[in-house]
Design goal:
Elements lengths: L2 E3 L4 E3 L2 E8 L3 H10 L7 E2 L2 E5 L3 H6 L3 E2 L2 H10 L6 H6 L2
Parallel strand pairs: 1-6
Antiparallel strand pairs: 1-3, 2-3, 3-5, 4-5
Length: 91
């Protein structure tokens, strides 16, 4: 099981955010996110948004720290990337 997290570089709602992804399956991602207390509403298309203050919790639980570009590359190569346009068209 490998879940990845990028640095909290994404601003929103008055704080900084990271993205939590899996390059294996969404089932793996959902299970990991639930194990660290991420609410289902934090899931967006292909990742969970993780607030900066929870970043260390994800890493301690086993998320591998990688850069944002590498994160996108891995989920794209795994066929798990869901772009905004595709998400709208699929439901």
């Amino acid at each position: 099981m490998t879940v990845y997290i990028d640095p909290p570089n994404w601003p929103g709602h008055g704080r900084m955010w990271s993205h939590l992804v899996s390059d294996v399956s969404f089932d793996e991602l959902h299970a990991f996110a639930a194990s660290i207390g991420c609410p289902p509403r934090a899931f967006e298309r292909d990742h969970y948004d993780v607030p900066e203050h929870r970043y260390a919790d994800a890493v301690v639980a086993g998320a591998v720290e990688i850069g944002s570009k590498e994160l996108v590359r891995r989920i794209t190569e795994a066929g798990l990337r869901r772009r905004k346009r595709a998400a709208r068209e699929n439901g």
